[in-house]
Specification:
This protein is of the alpha/beta class. The protein has a single domain, classed as Rossmann fold, CATH 3.40.50. It is 30% helix and 18% strand. The chain has helices spanning 44-47, 75-89, 101-112, 135-142, 154-162, 184-194, 224-232, 248-251, 253-265; strands spanning 10-14, 17-24, 28-33, 53-58, 94-99, 117-123, 209-215, 236-241. Helix 7 links the parallel strand 7 and strand 8. The relative contact order is 0.17.
């Protein structure tokens, strides 16, 4: 299987940071925040399921086509950078989809920059520190250097890390791995960020309508984390995809895309009442 082609993009300067950005489509704006070491072309399966929306995707510093930051950026700094990027691009309010590591950034963005966010989708993610890790899968991922992400030898390891359909078809992992090797500084900086932050104190203060998406076969971020966030977020609903792995947002894009469309398009809920929840 081939990797997705790189979409048209441009470089945007936010202070000293230089970010590769891709804006596509027309309609209500949706900000996409990618997972650990990922690049923006990995969103391709989901973009096909979001007609009628304008999508804003970017590479975090040191990943994809974005230059590495001169210094480590923690989750709060990455959320500030994301907020500034939206402002520079002329998007006062966006719907947000945060996947995995990007979901942690999205939580901080909603907590600290609430006016920037209309609705929030958190997929295959956790609160960071204080979450329940998938110990075996996490250990495997952290021992794989970025230079090995594109090697054929990584594919069987990826199946054990990400679960889901990759258990039956490990070669399919090539579609969901970064098309560009992340810079070693970007890789280390993201490791620093995810290991020095917890959203647990701020989750009860996030008042946005939130959709939590999780697969029940995610070795990297066990399902218990989605349930934990659903209990703490005041206006959250949770959707669990049977046999979905860590990559469920992308590998099951027709299914997850439908859930996201329905969530974004439904009338606003009464903020004074309880949010709909699913076990």
């Amino acid at each position: 299987m081939e990797r997705p082609a790189a979409p048209p993009s441009e470089e945007i300067g936010i202070g000293v940071q230089r970010l590769r950005v891709c804006i596509a489509g027309k309609g209500r704006p949706v900000l996409l925040i990618m997972g650990f070491a990922g690049s923006l072309e990995l969103w391709a399966p989901l973009l096909a399921e979001l007609p009628g929306h304008q999508t804003i995707a970017f590479d975090a510093p040191g990943t994809g086509g974005s230059k590495p930051s001169p210094w480590p950026l923690g989750i709060p700094a990455l959320a500030r950078l994301t907020d500034r990027l939206c402002g520079a691009l002329g998007f006062p309010t966006v719907d947000v989809i945060g996947y995995s590591f990007g979901g942690i950034v999205a939580q901080q963005l909603a907590a600290r920059h609430p006016k920037r966010v209309r609705r929030l989708v958190l997929a295959s993610t956790s609160p960071g520190l204080g979450s329940i890790p998938g110990l075996g899968a996490a250990a495997r991922l952290l021992t794989v250097p970025p230079s090995a992400y594109r090697s054929a030898g990584f594919l069987p390891t990826a199946a054990a890390i990400f679960g889901g359909s990759l258990r039956e078809d490990p070669a399919a992992a090539i579609r969901f791995l970064p098309s560009r090797v992340p810079h070693w500084r970007g890789w280390l900086h993201q490791l620093f960020a995810v290991n020095t932050y917890s959203s647990l104190p701020v989750l009860p203060r996030i008042g946005h309508e939130t959709l939590i998406l999780a697969g029940d076969d995610d070795p990297l971020v066990p399902l218990v984390n989605a349930r934990m966030m659903a209990r703490l977020l005041p206006r959250a609903q949770i959707e669990i995809v049977p046999q979905g792995g860590h990559l469920v947002l992308l590998e099951r894009a027709p299914e997850t895309g439908r859930l996201i469309r329905d969530f974004f398009d439904r009338p606003a809920a009464d903020a004074s009442g309880p949010a709909a929840r699913r076990p």
